[in-house]
UniProtKB/TrEMBL annotation:
Membrane-spanning intervals of the chain: 6-31, 43-65, 71-95, 243-264
Species of the source: Escallonia rubra
Superkingdom of the organism of origin: Eukaryota
Entry keywords, A to Z: Membrane, Transmembrane, Transmembrane helix
Protein name: Tetraspanin-2
Length: 280
């Protein structure tokens, strides 16, 4: 096997190994309760990792067994994959840039405004066509009732650092919706337990104040604060996924440049070999 092919095979084997944690990260992302409810967001990272694996495998096989045609296809598909990933990354950063979060005085948690997120996210996730199914899915996950098992007193609950859907409260992760499981703070509801609130002092302060319902199947699942909380968590998780995708693109570009150089060298070596055979 030529030296150039050796280099290409080694580089693609390294890339092949790098695809494994990317696929694992994609599976982790898909397993999150919110992503289970927003189906079309579940598998993009895992799918990209699988494509990365297949492209790297093709490059390794083509280089190790000196299959020049396979190497050519490998380089072509890798270029296409890099371009698609770069486009996806740019769009993902634009869509997830606004956070919609704001701090609540005297509370350890953060609340979210629907208007603070990108219009694309709002239109594709919280529209009337989509929210009904997402809302039913969130209610079925029993995210909110689990809060009552962790927080007994109002002091514990108000001091909790609640994220939009997930927070670490002990040795395990507790999933919940800060926007779905309680009424907005501005309404002035009195705390009974994490999913029961009574006697609002300012019931017209926000449209969500009148939507809140102590029924465990209703709560604030129809509130704008619940929609905003879901978007807040999706944004946070996809910002993490973007880091993985950036690493993936950098590795792909590095592999592509080395593979292109090695492919050209292999072609040159083949020409010299044929030239020598012609003189023999």
């Amino acid at each position: 096997m030529a030296v150039s092919n050796n280099i290409t095979a080694i580089v693609n084997f390294v890339a092949l190994m790098c695809s494994v944690p990317i696929i694992a990260a994609g599976i982790w992302l898909a397993s999150k309760p919110d992503n289970e409810c927003v189906h079309w967001l579940r598998w993009p990272v895992a799918f990209a990792g699988v494509l990365f694996l297949l492209v790297s495998l093709a490059g390794f096989v083509g280089a190790y067994w000196n299959k020049q045609t396979l190497l050519g296809f490998h380089l072509c598909f890798m270029a296409i994959l890099i371009v698609l990933l770069l486009i996806f990354l740019v769009l993902a950063f634009i869509v997830t840039h606004p956070s919609g979060a704001y701090s609540v005085p005297g509370r350890g948690f953060t609340e979210y405004r629907l208007s603070g997120f990108s219009s694309w996210l709002r239109d594709h996730i919280t529209s009337s066509d989509n929210w009904g199914n997402i809302r039913a899915c969130l209610a079925d996950t029993q995210i909110c009732p689990k809060l009552s098992q962790e927080y007994i007193s109002a002091e514990q609950f108000f001091a909790a650092h609640i994220s939009p859907i997930q927070a670490s409260v002990s040795s395990h992760s507790l999933c919940f919706q800060s926007g779905c499981c309680k009424p907005p703070t501005i309404c002035g509801y009195q705390y009974v337990n994490p999913i029961m609130w009574i006697n609002p002092t300012n019931p017209i302060a926000d449209a969500d104040c009148s939507i809140w319902n102590n029924d465990a199947s209703q709560l604030c699942y129809n509130c704008n604060s619940c929609k905003a909380g879901l978007l807040g968590n999706l944004r946070r998780e996809w910002r993490k996924a973007n880091v993985i995708l950036i690493v993936m693109v950098v590795v792909l570009i590095w592999v592509y440049l080395i593979a292109c150089s090695a492919y050209r060298n292999a072609q040159t070596e083949e020409l010299f070999r044929r030239y020598k055979q012609g003189w023999a």
